[in-house]
Structures are given as structure tokens and as C-alpha cells.
Amino acid sequence: MSPAADARASAAASASGSATPAGGRVREAGERHEPVPARGPLSGQYRWLSIGMFSLIFLAAFEAMAVTTVMPLVAADLDGESLFALAFAVPLAAGIIGMVLAGNWADRSGPLPSLLTAAVLFVVGLLIAGTATNMVVFVLGRFVHGLSGAAVIVPLYVIVARVYPENLRARVFAGFAAAWVIPSIIGPAIAGFVGETISWHWVFLGVIGLLLPAAGMMLPPILRVRDRVQGDPDVEWSLGRAGWAVLTAGAALALSLSKELPEPWRWVLAAVAIVVVAIAARPLMPVGTLHAARGMPATVLLRLVVAGAFFGSEIYLPYLFIERYEFSPSLAGAVLTGAGLSWAAGSWLQGRLGDRISNTLAVQIGASLLAVALVAVLLVAAFSLSPVIAFAAWTVAGGGMGLMYPRHSVAVLKLSPVSAQGFNSAALSIGESLGASVALALTALVSSAVVGSFAAGAFTADFAVTVVIAVIAVILAPRMRPRTEEPAATGP
Questions:
Q1: What is the CATH number of the domain that holds 475?
Q2: Residue spans of alpha helices (H) in 315-420
């Protein structure tokens, strides 16, 4: 980046955390933040922009949840059981590439071009998957809408940073959390009904008809503030960063599939993949992320760790209830519904608290709740305690995640120079994907080493791994507090 661009970024960064509505005063560097009048994300000037963004996230989340429900139908219809695991692993890997490209593009040209392109590609991916007549084409569709679905998130974060005042951002991200959680409650049931009564094809094609009006309601308000979401043309296109993203995605894909190999090759591939992920992901993260440097680097690393602890546990809870306690699948899935509701409640609470609780304290409390909840789940698995304890504990875990997840995003945007908001937002989402991928692979490998299946001993091993990850999050949480409240010089 040129010296002139650095100067512009520094000047803009001093005001980036306190943008006011059109006609308002921008805070000078070092001046205390004066809260704007209490107007929410659904107030007049933000209403349609907020609703449009919430709708996009809702539809992306619905698609992610719906695929889990209809995949058995897809695999049976397309004779693709051998590619079943790949259909889930490919979009996760593709998302890493999409987030990096979207972040670079948003910093250079503003969030609007990358957002529109990602939305168009999302529709293309849905068309490919929804009209697939064989499993290879279906996996290709999953790649395209995995690439674009992840890329949608990054420009939305940049829009929040550029358009909404700082005191509203926690509430906006609470809305994002609710838009993601609600599909986890209703999505599987709707997708199952459509897949069984009509066709699994319409689980994908039907979303297209909902996506177009969501994009339509968001575009006019974005165009009205386009002068505030401009990019910095001095930010260079980084082909090297794109290459590292491809390498990271490939290593993450290999790690996800390593459990399919026989002993000892699964461990060899997993070890190599983890090393490659650590090396390749480093250029995609803020400087200092891997050693938890104070402030934004530690915040990005925390997102990676807590995502690993939560999502690495979530996949095994229904299995525990079905295998150990002979629950029906629907009853076993109710534990995930409880966590979804508490996640939404935790997000709402942190949004209402606003500046009365710091970002660091919110994350410390959330990480502690998650660790305590996972210890309780581990005890249930180890000693066959009442499943009610696990249900209650997982509900607490969801509340902890809801309390801290939006604050990761708020903290990163607050500490980001304007010219690096896309990069740092992408890093936050990449960390989440990598944390979940690594944790899922580790738990699968450890449990297979214990008994080779989802039997009683394996559950104890699974949750022991995620408890260790959650404890690491508690230890790292205080490092989220920066040495200074000024935007950090971390980024590409």
C-alpha cells in the first residue's frame, strides 16, 4: 500500500469506530465517544438495509441447515453414497477461498461489488445443485455456493463498519446471530417436508425465489450510502494471498477426510494437514494471530478456538442421546434447539447491554460458560449421568456463544483500519471455519483411536478434547483487551 493510502487509512481509522448517520459529526482522534440517540438497527434510516442483510444471512443459514436434512435423499437418488462426506467437506474448504477473495475485493473496491458477485454466484450454485442429475455435478454446485455463501458474510461486516455507528454494532450482530440461529430451529423440518413431499431439488431451487427480494430490499439503501462504503484503490490485489487460501482450503479438506483412511495413514495425513494449515493460514490472519498478540490478533484466534470447542461438541450430542439413552432422532435433536434459542437470547442480551459490558468481559464470561457446560457434558458421557444435565449444560453453552460471538465481530471492526476491514473480517470467518474443521477432525481421530466407533468410550474422548479446547479459550480471553483503543496496525 502506498504512503498516501497509509495516511488516508490512518485518518479514516481514527473515525471508523464512530461513524454517525448522514449529517452527523465525525469524532476527532482521541475524543471520547459521545453516544448517538438510542435508535436501533430497525429505525427509519437503517430499517431496510438491516432487514435485507438479516434476510441474506437467514437464507444462507437455511441452506446450510437444510442440506444436512436432505443429503441422505440426495445421495440415494444420485447414487452418490461414496461422495457423501465430500459433499460436506468441499463447501467448507471453498468458503476459505471465498472469504479471502471477498475481503481483498471489499478493501479495494468497497463491499458492494463483492457482495453482488457473491449473491449471483450463490444463485448459480443453487441452480447447479438443484438441477444436478449425478453426484459429481451436485458436489460442484456445493463448491460454488460454498464459495459464495462464505463470501457474502465479509462484505456485510464491512457495511456494518462503514454505515452503522459503533453503539449499534453489537445489536446488528445480535440480529445476524438470530438470523443464523432461527434456521437451525425450523430449517431441518421445512427441508425434510419439502424433500419428502415434493423433491429434494426444491430445497435448493426454492431458495432462489426468496433470495431475489432480499437482495432487492437491501440494494437501494446501500446505494444511498455508497459514498461511505467506498474502497481504497491503492489496496493491491494479492494473488499470493489467494494462493495461500487455496493451499489452506486443500489442507483443511484433507484434514476433514483423513479419518476415512486406515491406520496409521489417517494420523500421518492429519499431522501433515495441520502443519500445512498453520503455515498457509498465517498470511490470511492479522499479524500476531498464531501467538495470540493482544487485541485483534488474539480476538481472531479466540474465534477459532471457541468455534472448535462448540462445533466440535455439537455433532456428537445427538449421537450420545441416541446411542446411550435410546432417544429418537427428533428428541435427540431437541438439545440443539435449546442451544439455538439460548444463543439467540445471549446475543440479544449483549446487544441490549451495549457499552455497559466491555467486549473483553463479554467474551470472558461467554468462554467460561462454554467451558463449564462442556465439563458437565463430559461428566454425563463419562459416568452415564442423566441426559437432562447434558441438555441443560448445552443450553448454557449456547447462551455463552451468543454472548461472546457478536463481540468478536464488534472488537475486530473497532480495531481495524478502514483499509483492512475486509481482510480482518475475512480472517475472523476463516478462523471460525478452521477451528471447526480442526476440532471435528481431532475428535474423530481421537475417538477412533479409543474404540473405533461412536460407542461409550468414544464419547468421553470426544468431549475431553473439546473441554481442553474450551479451557484454552478461557486462558486466552483476557488477551482480547488491546493495549490501546486506537485502531491497530494489523492487517494484510
A1: 1.20.1250.20
A2: 317-325, 329-353, 359-383, 387-414
